[in-house]
Specification:
mainly alpha, 2 strands, disordered C terminus, elongated
Length: 666
């Protein structure tokens, strides 16, 4: 259903003669007699009734100017009904030149005599500031005078003022009392507003079945907006048995009468297949009807359909124009969507400053998604000057609303002391909140903190729990870490086959740490049948991505001819790549290859260089190698090495929502 909260209805009152005169009876064919009384006996009531005759064309030719003339004569004699009738003519400019000030003057004279219609119309003029300075308190006073005489519209309008606290102290119970009076007088709109009060529990105890009954009564009396509200109750099963098909029928009846909220709600049902078969084209058509009447949420929904090409041909420019229409009406969702279009240059020329402007407008309305997007702009310095503190401010506002991505970003900033003081306890707090909402990166990060005992007491079992939750959602880093815990028996029972399972899942996603470790498991034959060819395959995949352990392991295979043809030049190539990354073991072996001239030109200076580097890295064998020629068959018999297990933070970009990527957070 429409995301907008249902509003109580406020009647759009117009001062018009026909409405104002419905209280009075016309006299029909007695016009001649009236004329005689009016002229010969100067009878004010006869003059008023003669004016009525001319206004209605009863017994005389209809002539509003002539009607005004007779009303004026009666009004000057103090005839209250004539004063009201004349005031209405001046308000609408019928039979006389429009003059709101004169309308106010004549209504005031009649109101002071207790005429309910003039009290009501004068109240409208004070409420709207028509012909007189706007004065809501005076409007309320005048509505009250008319309401006490049983004027249903005055009772209704006064109820609206009490409901809003507009011109009077807010009093929902008094609003309910007045709506009841107006409803008893047959006012369908009052029935509708009374239904709203029962649905919200405002001024009365919450009573959804009663709200539904009141909407049904209002609809039966011809107030079609009530059909839409009743449809909403059937759609949600509130106050009535849930019945999406009936909801759709009620929305359709209201939509056919031009009720925009019903058009939007029926569009949503066609878009999502609730109560009707999914039909995106029908949804778009309904949104268009409401959008053309200026309804912002319809413009936004139709914009989404043009952006994604659902129900209509994809047209990003049209989407941007629709978002702009809704954004100018302060619809936060549309402002965010328009900001996104400017940020990506979709449907409009890319303009980061405009993107930031629209994100800010939506963020200031409290839209968490926009607050997060604006925070991202400040992190990257896109469209605004880079300001990590400002970024943290917006992330915090969204995070405090429970927006999971903002919680994750705020945790990262707290962890690294960017924009906020570094605070491990605060970091863990935000990672935990995001993790509990199921965000895999946050689950992984929380697992990392429990694993390392950083900001929390070390607890490997809890670490394994959070890694598993993230791993089961497909996060490669968590799969790798869980594999390591199963491999080493940390926080879980040692289970090499389970370790292989998780390494394989992460390796299949291209994570080099996991590819190397999976290669080790195949090489050693742990958790899986030994398969040196399979080991070489996984080492190579990791090595080509720059993993130094895999490069070293691959170098060893070529050096020993282990599962591959012995090839010292190929071995030297992989040892060099690992050595250049600071791998002490590879530096030592590369030094020995230079010392012996294996796969490289013999070069004692180069050998010494790599031995010294290995020694500087703390390799215990390096000092004894310097100046000696070593037997390479013993130097290289180290087992293939798993990657060191020290999980680090991941600042990878993730999706803010299914259709909205978040800013990268580097």
């Amino acid at each position: 259903m429409s995301a907008k909260k249902k509003k109580s209805f406020t009647r759009k009152d117009n001062l018009n003669q026909s409405k104002g005169l419905q209280k009075y009876n016309f006299i029909g064919s007695a016009a001649a007699k009236l004329h005689s009384l009016a002229t010969e006996q100067d009878d004010a009531d006869a003059k008023f009734k003669l004016g009525q005759a001319y206004a209605a064309g009863k017994g005389v030719r209809r002539d509003m100017a002539e009607a005004g003339k007779w009303y004026l004569q009666a009004a000057r004699q103090g005839h209250a009904q004539a004063q009201t009738a004349l005031a209405l003519l001046y308000a609408d400019g019928v039979g006389v030149a429009q003059n709101l000030a004169k309308s106010v003057e004549w209504h005031r004279l009649a109101a002071e005599q207790g005429d309910a219609i003039s009290q009501y119309n004068l109240a409208i003029m004070h409420e709207k500031g028509r012909g007189v300075a706007q004065d809501k308190a005076e409007a309320a006073r005048l509505y009250a005078l008319a309401a006490e005489q049983g004027h249903a519209y005055a009772q209704f309008n006064l109820g609206v003022l009490f409901q809003r606290g507009d011109g009077v102290a807010m009093d929902k119970a008094e609003a309910v009392r007045l709506y009841r009076l107006a409803a008893a007088g047959g006012d369908a709109v009052a029935l509708f507003n009374l239904g709203i009060m029962y649905e919200r529990g405002e001024g009365v105890a919450l009573d959804l079945p009663k709200a539904a009954r009141l909407y049904a009564l209002a609809a039966k009396k011809g107030f079609v907006v009530a059909l839409s509200n009743l449809g909403g109750m059937y759609a949600k099963g509130e106050g009535v048995a849930q019945d999406p098909a009936k909801a759709a029928r009620l929305f359709a009846l209201a939509a056919e009468k031009g009720v925009t909220v019903a058009q939007v709600n029926l569009g949503l049902m066609y878009e999502t297949g609730q109560g009707v078969a999914v039909d995106k084209a029908k949804a778009a058509g309904l949104y268009l009807l409401a959008a053309e009447q200026g309804r912002a949420d319809a413009q936004h929904r139709l914009g989404l359909m043009y952006e994604t090409g659902q129900g209509v041909a994809m047209d990003k420019s049209k989407a941007a124009r629709l978002y702009l229409l809704a954004a100018r009406q302060d619809l936060a969702d549309a402002q965010h969507c328009l900001g996104f279009m400017y940020a990506k240059g979709q449907g409009v020329a890319m303009d980061k400053a405009k993107a930031a402007k629209w994100f800010r407008l939506a963020a200031e309305q409290g839209l968490a998604l926009a607050q997060c997007s604006l925070g991202g702009m400040y992190v990257e310095g896109e469209g605004v000057a880079q300001d990590k503190a400002e970024a943290a401010k917006w992330f915090r506002l969204a995070a405090e609303q429970g927006f999971v991505v903002a919680q994750y970003f705020l945790a990262i900033m707290s962890e690294h002391g960017e924009g906020v003081p570094a605070d491990k306890a605060e970091t863990v707090k935000w990672y935990r909140l995001a993790a509990e909402q199921g965000l895999p990166l946050a689950q992984y990060s929380l697992g990392r903190f429990f694993h390392m005992g950083d900001g929390v007491a070390m607890d490997r079992a809890k670490a394994a729990k959070w890694y598993r939750l993230a791993a089961e959602q497909g996060l490669d880093l968590a799969q790798y870490c869980l594999g390591m815990m199963c491999d080493q028996g940390e926080g879980v029972a040692t289970d090499k086959a389970e370790a292989v399972k998780w390494y394989r899942l992460a390796a299949g996603q291209g994570l080099p740490l996991a590819q190397n470790n999976l290669g080790c498991m195949y090489h050693i034959g742990e958790g899986v049948a030994k398969d040196v060819a399979e080991a070489e395959k996984w080492y190579r995949l990791a090595a080509e991505q720059g993993n130094s352990n895999a490069q070293s392991n691959l170098g060893n295979m070529f050096h020993r001819g282990d599962g591959v043809p012995k090839d010292e030049a190929e071995a030297a190539k992989w040892f060099r790549l690992a050595a250049e990354q600071g791998d002490a073991y590879s530096q030592l072996i590369l030094g020995s290859l230079y010392e012996m001239g294996l796969g490289v030109t013999r070069d004692m200076a180069e050998a010494g260089k790599w031995y010294r580097l290995a020694g500087g890295r703390g390799h215990v064998g390096a000092p004894t190698r310097i100046g000696k020629i070593l037997a390479m068959d013993t130097a290289t018999r180290e087992a293939p090495r798993l990657a060191e297990f020290s999980p680090g933070p991941s600042n990878r970009p993730i999706d803010l929502s299914p259709s909205r990527p978040s800013p990268s957070f580097g």
